[in-house]
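Researcher: Can you fold this with zinc ion in place?
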Amino acid sequence: MPDTPRRGTRIAHIGIAVESLRSLLPLYRDVLGMPEVPLDDADGARIAGLAAGESLVELLEAASPESPIGKFIARRGPGIHHVCFAVDDLDDALDRCRTAGLRLIDEKPRIGAEGKRIAFLHPSATGGVLVELSDP
Ligand code: ZN
């Protein structure tokens, strides 16, 4: 990313698994006052994005019970699903994770809901938190 100023690692979004977008979106948008941001669906989830300063909250509703969010809710119930950190250089960050011996879910970056390249680290490598890394 030669034209992007280096900003350091920061929270890009927090993904929250919900049973129903319809029932929870009004809380975040209307009661908490977070503007809605259009996002693509991804990984078998319908996604509602809400701006919280420079970060987003992503409400993730399973499109089917077999999707990752569907399985997560069946196993653990609704709640925080993952945290996404934007890094200055995703390829470099993944190389550092590999060198540190961390288990990766995505060996290579792929395109996420915001149209940016992303990659997930396995929660067993990160203290039980599913961590997503993304391009700036
Ligand atoms: Zn995410």
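Model: Folded with zinc ion in place. The mean pLDDT is 93.
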